[in-house]
Protein 1
Amino acid sequence: MAKKAWSRLPMPRRVERTLDVALDRALAVQRPVVLNYLHRVQRKDPNLTPAQLVTRLERQYLTAVVGIGGASGAAAAVPGAGTAASVASGAAEIGAFVSASAMYVLALAELHGLPVSDPVVRRALVLSVLLGDGSAAALDGAGVADRHWAAVLTRSTSKDKIAGVNSHLGRLLIGRFGARQSALLFGRALPLGVGAAVGAGGNAALARGAIRSARRAFGPPPANFPKLVVDAR
């Protein structure tokens, strides 16, 4: 019965709007902000190798989104907070998840010597990482068949092809990622602290998928740091 009740609620459209706005905001971040984030991580341990820094970025990303999901789900456990308030909190959490994901992907791009200033390319890179295996067909259709597609997207793919990829990936994001987040929204709204566990666990699963996808997109860590990364160490 609960499942049928959830299916009658107009959440997919709300999630679609939330995802669209979240992506626009996340991808509007300026390159100096991404570099500053990367440098802050480095300064905590200046002796990190590029491979170790990638691992640190993955760990911080996972920790951040698990915390975001748990905090959002915990709203349902607060006395007097109704389901509507919990769902609203979950919708805001989607934005935070996408923002954290974009920062993680763009920091990896800088670390791999693939700075991304073009908003069209940025969107394709972030969407393809978020969708993982689901993005393969769209990338192949644009001629981006390389296993490590990040370099191909940023260096040799035409803008027209990337725009087509973005259109396809955007639909996939709403249909797949949005549907999963819709289910998580209602899971987070469960009372007695169960929502917090659902939110944290759901975000952890999504983040691990994004991390696996990022590893495929960027390939092995570079042997040396790019110049801009070295200069600020």
Protein 2
Amino acid sequence: MTAAQLEAIEQSGWGQPYKFLQPHNLAFWVYLLGVGGGLLTMLRYFGAGAPFYAQALTGGVILFGLYLVPWFLLLAHHNRFTAQPAGLLATGFVWGGVAATFWIALPANGALLAIWAKIGGTSFAANWGAGLTAPINEEWGKALGLVLIIGLAPRLVRSAYDGFIIGAFIGLGFQVFEDILYVYNGATQLFGVDQFGSSLRVFLIRGAAGIVSHALFSAIFCAGLMWLLGRTPGERNRVRGVLTMLMAMLFHFAWDDMAGISGGSSLAAVLPFAIAVIELIALFAVLRRAARQERSWIRALLGPEVEAGVVDPPLLDAVSGLRKDRKKYRRHLHSRSKARHLLEATNDLAREIATARGTESARVTHARAEVLRLRER
């Protein structure tokens, strides 16, 4: 059991520190180039008009800043197995919001849309251009952030689940910064009239659509990329990886080109809901598949604690399991609050064991004692 525990710690990289400043690492300088280029493009785009449209921009920043709160809570909930450090996730978020949006997508989309207009005409470009452009430029631009983060933290980013979580944060950054861009463009189209009302309308429309937008696309795409790369022994599956990435691009295409797909028929009223349902089903299927490796690592890491009687088998099943396993454990204890506290304490114990690399430490001893205290309560 100890050998399996050490192998899980080594393979997962859980507990390894994350350091952003790495002047001897090429990935660090490419990351700075992308973010710096994105910042310059952002300043040029808003330019002299920013003071005049300050009310719209301020409203957009506040509204979408509040919009981030439930997203962060949701993603923090899913970042619960061999959890990624907050600094690493922030690195992904900034890449998605600044570099992928302004350094890559904004100029690349404009260039490719112009090509589609020349090839198929303005009507073709209007109906199909966005869906033929964004899935290429935006998904690969966001995924480049994951590749750079692998370069910055190769021991931390190992599994498809890591790719899923990091991809969701990259996509969320892209989504929010792009939405603020839409707020600004909407205000300019109305020549500054009713700026806050304009930003509120964009927020309501884009916020609702954001549930099945870039965070979802990137989570699926980056999970597929990790399956393709196969950074964990036994997890590489090139066919699954390519198909998962193509699925994310197909979803992006369908979402951007609903007008062209519906052809102006009555299908346009139900198509967004149908696509959203399909996307969510696919998202949870990818999430469950990607979590298998992480769940096995948690079981191996806590195996010696089960042998020692610190963690009982039902608690291990709940900590390493799915939502249904946690619900089953709550019923087993007949106490939602006790189950929640025990799950949190056991996760803390697993994290401290990983940080100590399987050795005893004061923090491991304290976390273990807390689990025993809660079990006996």
Protein 3
Amino acid sequence: MTTLAHDVFEVEQVKPLIGAAITSNKETLLSGKYAKDIRAMLEDRGVIVFKKVDFTDEEQVAFTKTLGNFVQEMTGDTFKISMDKAINPVAEYTKGAFYWHIDGTMDRVPLFASMLSARRLAPVGGNTAFCNTYAAWDALPDEEKAQIENLRVVHSLVAAQLFVEPEPTSAQFEGWNSLGTNEIPLVWTHMSGHKSLVLGSTAEYIVGMNPIESRRLLIKLREWCTQDQFSLSHAWTIGDAVIWNNTGTMHRAEAYPLDCDRLMVRTKLAGEEAFA
């Protein structure tokens, strides 16, 4: 294989159990030369930061395509994440991103990965937090694993939106409820044989469990997954891009002023395996 004239690809761990930071350039990344390495890091590290790579929308789309099956957003190739309704008509719905979640818990096959790039920053706050639910599962005591391994959880948009609007109107509630529910495993056994916990704000209740005990366990497991050793908070710099493995991480936006002009651009990779 011919070496690129300006081939740059340096990797460092962010934390022992989560995160890798890659220093590279557009030419190297867009060539696809390291696509297999990046895919392997997504499986192992969960979250990858590309420092100040400064992708345009078109370049971000092209790079995302080197890593798997690109899937369009409802708005086209990219989705503009902003609280300005003129830029993002579903800004109210986007407020759910401030709570721990996994994208696609209402789907049979969730997204494999998502990428964000920073175009405009909040004046304060606005980090994006991630946690590794593979590592969190691995670290659970065997006795606790045995107790929860076969449990199933019902997920709904209602559960997620009640974090945002705890006293909805009937019309709001019925709108959320129209999307129905999805029952999936609490512990996802992947095609690789590895296991991860499937949690987040969409988790409404554990099937067959007393409602209070169900909520108690979901909270306990969320706290477990989001401990410092399994999580990281990325402080954005303009031009950064971050991709994460949606099948084995939860994420959330950290608080920032909703009236600021913070702008992120998202691209996505289609799911490759169903919840099982």
Protein 4
Amino acid sequence: MSAPLYGLVEAGGTKFVLGVARGPDEIIATTRIPTITPAETIPAMCDWLAGHGALAAVGVATFGPVEVDRSSPQWGHVLGTPKAGWPNTDLVGPLVERLGCPVGLDTDVTAAALAEYRWGAGQGQPSVLYFTIGTGVGGGVVIGGRPLAGVSHPEMGHFHLPLHPADAEFTGVCPFHGTCLEGLASGPAVKARYGISLSELPSDHIGHEVVAWYLAHAVMTAQAMFEPGRIVLGGGVMGTPGLIERVRGEAERIGKGYFRGKASETVVLPGLGERSGLLGALALAQAAIR
């Protein structure tokens, strides 16, 4: 008897990555569709998944903010996102109506943390924290196999941290909080200062030191709050050569040896590479039928 077939949705601000899989090592098909309007994107998502036959469950790893509380009448709805046209969009309802199967839902970063915990860089660890550093900054935590959530999902890109001495005049790009982590270390924040991406800057440019400084403070904050076995740094900005080494070194320096986990061992790139989000959707789908 073959393993159940799951539908996978990694919903992003620019594209939806879709897949069908029987397990992490058996992804049968994938495709990408642009994130246009809900009226265009959601039916295209449902059509593609429906074209692969009966599904045991669907997992949705989505950009946020999103309602993750199943007891809420807004469960499965994108909430106050700055993505034009998407606030209050129901992601789950159309899938249930069209496919008639259970749906698991969480943020893309929490799903990625879950995938890394189960199959990636966090295997064998008691807890994993995942930061994505890209167009935005977000984070998710898995402790003992369960994602952490309070009255809503974590918003780890929006805490404040000290400004780098060479960055004192920068006001940040976050429209809500200015100089929060997202406002200082995201891809748009880098371009707002320097006009190009971090990977395009010369290797000796101060921008590398500035971004590593902020990410190292995020690492230290994560250690102080959770002492996770692994802190996984994903997202496009982390593709910059040498950045992970800079972050580790700076985190060790400012941590002053206080934390049990050494940044040189704890801070890692995603073990699943670009598959973290899609495999996170698989983990959510599997949980939906358990």
